Amino acid sequence: MTLKRVWIYCVICVVGLVFHASQVSAQSNSNEAANPKQSQDSNAAQKNPNAEQSSANERDGQHDFDPLIGAWKFHLKRRLHPLTGSNTWVESEGTGVCFKIWDGRAELDTVEIDDPVGHIEGLTVRTYNPQSHQWRLYWANSKNGIMDPPQVGGFKNGRGEFFAQDTINGRTILIRYAWTDMTSNSPHFEQSFSDDGGKTWEVNFITDQTRVKDESEKAH
After folding, report:
1. 177-214: per-residue pLDDT in tens?
2. Domain-by-domain residue ranges, the chain?
3. CB count, 10 Å around CB of 79?
4. What angle do CA 155, 157, 161 make, to 5 degrees?
5. Quick check: 198 and 174 in contact, CB under 8 A?
6. Chain centroid to CA 195: how far?
7. What is the pTM of this model?
8. Which CATH superfamily is domain 66-219 in?
């Protein structure tokens, strides 16, 4: 084969390779244009391969308050003068019933308390948001019928914490609800206030519940 023919053969091979590469690139761009979302999802998955798994593993807490369904007796302790340095407490007794709504995604919890300052009737409405995986807890007292700002939060490792901002005696404070021992027959609740942005907390309300077995089935 002459040198001239070798040169022509090499040129033909190079042209063929360039044409083939351009066809592959054009086909790839065409597929991406036809399926832009699929392409974006693929790129996102490559950047964060654990994103889908993390979403799938998000904890569903819509039945966290199921253990409270039923009838209860309450023993309560209340700090008379929160955030004043006072350590004077009063104790009282009460009864209540917790009802399940929306297959457990909401609850209505009623309570009547014989307190040293008088008879108290109150209720708590709890609603669950399946998108945020959080609960909202609304408290109201029959004396004024006003729902307090909701406590928002959820459970982790058996402890439920719920937070809200409110005003007491003209001061803006944080309020924390804490639920523990939920799976026992003696759930424990504490309410705490903070006037320093959550750096320190002062417990001012404590309840310990005892299940009333004969009446509990009526709440389901």
Report:
1. 999 999 998 999 999 999 999 999 999 999 999 999 86
2. 3-56, 66-219
3. 20
4. 35
5. yes
6. 24
7. 0.71
8. Calycin beta-barrel core domain (2.40.128.20)
Question: How do strand 89-101 and strand 106-115 relate by DSSP bridges?
Answer: antiparallel
Q: Which residues of 39-50 are buried (b: 16+ CB within 10 A; e: fewer)?
A: eeeeeeeeeeee
**Token reading at 67:** 């253990």
Sequence-distant (6+) residues with CB within 8 A of 209 are: 68, 72, 73, 74, 186, 187, 188, 189
Q: Report which residue type is found at 190.
A: E
* Six token digits for residue 97: 């019933």
For residue 130, which of 65, 59, 52 has the smallest C-alpha distance? 59
- Tell me the two tokens of residue 161: 């914490």
- Rounded CA-CA distance 210/11 in Å is 91
β-pairing verdict for 118-129 and 151-156: unpaired
